[in-house]
């Protein structure tokens, strides 16, 4: 079997899902354009800013993608490429797209607030406090992990660092120009073409002007940048950078598809399904925790209800941004799998150990893109730069989301301290950055990533719980949300139980305690949700 038919089948499946299953889901959420969105109701020029759908999609897609749909699927191929592909398609359509859109729409109907506030409104204040603490901890974890990854990437690839700096400067210029021509569609199109053209030129220019710093300095520079990105108006830096960067990923997907169709390489990996792995454990639940962003990821709910919902111009835009954005990411995950299954299982195992998933992805796609006449070295560098650019996007978005979460936690608090924390974005962001530095000093990627994987998928289960309760209280049949919710709770609770016991046996007591705490937290929120719904248990559900 060759790779091109697999890619075409996946593309047709995801497109059909948007128009068929998407139509069913859109009706369930009662999406209408006659409602006033939070971006208009609370427009402040900093966080709430109504924007074009293509701009919001660019921001949202760039924020949720990162390195997740690349790293997770490639590692999960350890269990076999067939279960990986099945979970990406099934999970992306029936789990991830519902999760992302549900989080976004629930936020749009709750003044653009986060999932934590939705839990407060539908489950109670205690549920909100627990969820916000969990979300904040997870975001700090993500900031620490990605700051470590990006700093090491910049050290190993100084040209990527240079290009990234040029991208940031370009984004600020684009944001300033775009603000002045926002009312002129033709000028916005012209500035977009120029901006994207310059961005691709900066890929080349960055490689010619490598910029080198040591690891520790890069960490401080990156976190200083994240601070600035968190407190400045969203239309000045975060939104234009994500919008322009999204064209890097769109370009990557287009070149990858053309390269795969033109080369049509043979799938050399066997079709066997491996129930266990010496390094990872059992297929269930590890496969469903490892492949997160390509199928369903709790981090997406924080983006959807944190930054994205504050930029949606019309409620109908949530369809392509929330549901469509997730399906595009699922397609990227399929491409990631395709980049490595052209190797035999023996070659895959050796390369994964020696080079890691990002290098495997870059080398695999670069070789396919080279069949289009692009120099292979340039193609490989372009792929690696794109992955790094999106890791940086995840860093700045997470910092802003952590600031939102911190401020929302203290909303309504009495006294000068609570009021300062809830209203002052500079102080709140400073606390986020300081905590991230402390966490980085306690361990790097290899220490923190396993905890993040389990916490991230538990976050998805909790977000689905919040959306399900919200729908039930609106007397909407929420079965399409409840089934994914139960599955994700089963996956994460099993994973956390195994993780806690394994680390206890290995005498890694801190990691064991964290896993056990997350396990208990999820049970408490389930109990609170059940109590909240008890008063509604006898109300008939409509067939909305």
UniProtKB/TrEMBL annotation:
Protein name: Carbon starvation protein A
Keywords: Cell membrane, Membrane, Transmembrane, Transmembrane helix
Transmembrane segments: 6-26, 61-79, 85-108, 129-147, 159-177, 186-205, 217-238, 243-262, 282-299, 320-343, 378-395, 426-445, 451-472, 479-502, 508-529
Pfam families: CstA (PF02554)
Localization of this protein: Cell membrane
Family: Belongs to the peptide transporter carbon starvation (CstA) (TC 2.A.114) family.
Membrane topology: Multi-pass membrane protein
Top-level taxon of origin: Bacteria
Main location: membrane
Domain CstA N-terminal: 6-349, 352-495
PANTHER family in the cross-refs: INNER MEMBRANE PEPTIDE TRANSPORTER (PTHR30252), PEPTIDE TRANSPORTER CSTA (PTHR30252:SF0)
């Amino acid at each position: 079997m060759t790779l091109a038919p697999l890619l075409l089948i996946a593309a047709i499946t995801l497109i059909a899902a948007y128009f068929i299953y998407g139509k069913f889901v859109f009706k369930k959420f009662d999406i209408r354009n006659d409602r006033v969105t939070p971006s208009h109701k609370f427009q402040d020029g900093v966080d709430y800013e109504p924007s074009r759908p293509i701009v919001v999609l660019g921001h949202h897609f760039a924020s949720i993608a990162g390195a997740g749909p690349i790293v997770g699927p490639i590692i999960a191929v350890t269990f076999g490429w067939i279960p990986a592909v099945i979970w990406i398609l099934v999970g992306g359509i029936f789990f991830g797209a519902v999760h992302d859109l549900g989080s976004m729409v629930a936020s749009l109907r709750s003044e653009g607030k986060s999932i934590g506030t939705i839990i407060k409104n539908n489950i109670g204040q205690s549920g909100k406090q627990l969820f916000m603490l969990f979300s904040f901890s997870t975001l700090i974890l993500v900031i620490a992990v990605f700051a470590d990854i990006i700093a090491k990437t910049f050290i190993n690839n100084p040209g990527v660092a240079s290009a990234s700096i040029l991208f940031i400067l370009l984004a600020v210029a684009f944001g300033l120009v775009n603000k002045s021509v926002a009312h002129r569609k033709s000028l916005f199109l012209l500035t977009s073409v120029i901006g994207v053209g310059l961005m691709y030129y900066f890929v080349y220019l960055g490689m010619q002007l490598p910029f080198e710093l040591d690891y520790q300095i890069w960490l401080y520079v990156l976190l200083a940048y994240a601070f600035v990105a968190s407190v400045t108006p969203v239309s000045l830096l975060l939104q234009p950078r994500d919008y322009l960067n999204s064209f890097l990923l769109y370009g990557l997907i287009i070149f990858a598809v053309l390269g795969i169709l033109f080369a049509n390489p043979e799938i050399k990996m066997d079709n066997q399904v491996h129930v266990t792995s010496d390094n990872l454990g059992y297929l269930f639940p590890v496969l469903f925790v490892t492949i997160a962003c390509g199928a369903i990821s709790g981090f997406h709910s924080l983006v959807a209800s944190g930054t994205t919902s504050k930029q949606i111009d019309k409620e109908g835009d949530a369809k392509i941004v929330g549901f469509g954005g997730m399906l595009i990411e699922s397609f990227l995950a399929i491409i990631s799998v395709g980049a490595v299954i052209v190797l035999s299982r023996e070659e895959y195992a050796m390369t994964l150990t020696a080079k890691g998933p990002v290098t495997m992805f870059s080398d695999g796609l670069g070789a396919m893109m080279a069949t289009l006449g692009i120099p292979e070295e340039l193609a490989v560098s372009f792929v690696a730069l794109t992955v790094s650019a999106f890791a940086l996007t995840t860093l700045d978005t997470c910092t802003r989301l952590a600031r939102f979460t911190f401020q929302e936690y203290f909303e309504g608090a009495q006294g000068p301290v609570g009021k300062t924390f809830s209203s002052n974005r500079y102080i709140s962001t400073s606390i986020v950055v300081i905590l991230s530095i402390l966490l980085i000093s306690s361990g790097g990627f290899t220490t923190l990533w396993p905890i993040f994987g389990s916490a991230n998928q538990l976050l998805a289960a909790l977000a689905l719980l919040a959306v399900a309760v919200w729908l039930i209280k609106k007397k909407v049949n929420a079965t399409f949300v409840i089934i994914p919710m139960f599955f994700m709770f089963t996956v994460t609770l099993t994973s956390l139980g195994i993780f806690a016991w394994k680390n206890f046996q290995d005498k890694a007591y801190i990691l064991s305690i964290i896993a056990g705490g997350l396990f208990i937290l999820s049970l408490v929120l389930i109990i609170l949700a059940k109590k909240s719904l008890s008063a509604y248990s006898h109300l008939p559900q409509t067939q909305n």
